[in-house]
Amino acid sequence: MTSVVTAAITWRPCDDLPGHVQCANLTVPLDYTNCSNNQTLVLQLVRAPAVTGQSKGSILLNFGGPGATSRQTLATTNPLLHAMTGGQHDLIAFDPRGTGTTIPFHCYDDFGLIRLALEQTASNSSDVALGAIWARAMLDSQTCFETENDTGNLIGTAFVARDMIRVVDALEEDGFSYGTTLGATVSAMFPERVDKVILDGVQNPHEYYHATADFEEWTDSDKVVSAIFHTCLDFPENCALSQQGVGAEELEQQFWNLLWQIKYEPIIVGPFTVDYDLMKLVVASCLYDSSTWPALALLLQGLFTGQSNEAMERVLSAFYPTTYEGTVEAVRLSPPLMGIHCSDRTPRLNTLEELKPTVGRLYEVSRFMGDVAASLQATCVQWRFHAKERYEGDFNVRTANPLLIVNNHFDGHTPLVSAYNVSSGFEGSHVLEVAGYGHASLAVPSLCTVEHISAYFNDGILPDHGYVCNATVTPYSGLGWDDILDLGAAAGKRAISGTDIGGYRIPRGYAPGHRWLL
Question: For residue 199, what is the enclosing H or E element?
């Protein structure tokens, strides 16, 4: 990357974000591959200043997806993130290209997003579903190519990695980062710039860029589905399914029986038609965070016993909005995911027949998530944009300082095996295992994890490779991060936990779009 003189960053109060955060702008090149192009892009940065004494520097955060916005997330979750990292650093984020305020990748107007939401389905929901998915994916590829043609090839991960380096240069600091696939990419592209980087909830980057699907991503999904039932009886007072009076294996079998039944005979619960697709939506969302499991258990207990009540309706409405505006907001993340992931991915296929082996392999990897994941893969193999720059290396890299890679034992989206696969390429990196359920370490409250992440960022101390942190809070206990950490009055229990459903917590961010964004 060419050396440039970058203007200093001037921080000011934020006009559009909650909390005590600061904002600034940074101008970067729009197209890093075209030196003669003078067009630029303004990154809108947000900073949550250090809370413990004088700042030791900055940590640049990315919240994954791809497609998730970062500015709003940092503004609302920085008390927890400060607690996780030790509070001695400024936390900084910007919306990656294609998201939020940075070249937003829309594809559709609001009505088009509604249609996108309504036409999504799991590939095993019927004998004609896969064909419908293929056709819908073709439509999405064509529509996005027409509506986003000016910038659709400028939002790839390699360009975002270069944006991160521009931010680091402007801060006049070494590279501190907390993320996953983007973190792996920037570390591989700029290994000499790495000071301290944490990859948390690790995706296989080889498959992300070069496979027809993210097969490895779903390796542990079925184990997490099983855990919903196997951990229920540890706290029967918080798990409505304990009223069934049967063991965990039978509870799980009842779930699979229900899923099969509602494929052919959906159940009405208030304004909701609970069919195969809706049930997949709800449970797939719950794989992210075990704090949702008590609410899910309440819903399943009602379905198992033929009930329909307001508590069940409230659970369903937390995952599936009942308003036009809510549906639009929930599915708004879908186009950025397609735009970023699919333009990063290299393989393309021409026919549905060519896709079928990929779908079959997804089914083999995960009984539950295999048919949920097929939709995105059908889109990517037909995608018409190609990112102007992709990282083409092999992720076998010696960085200036070793990475810390953190992964839960049972993560339905980024399995532990991926953490070790990535670690094998980054020389000297260490894996910290977290013995819990959910996606990334933030889903598993653990004081041990906090201790090691803080020690790494503040003192450069790595845990032993393969060290295991136990969870401080377990599923169905009714406890969360705010019960074991002092997050400050500004955080508040509901700011971290989200919505209460009959006394059970539904973390914010679980919405219908998420089930189809996988």
Answer: strand 194-200
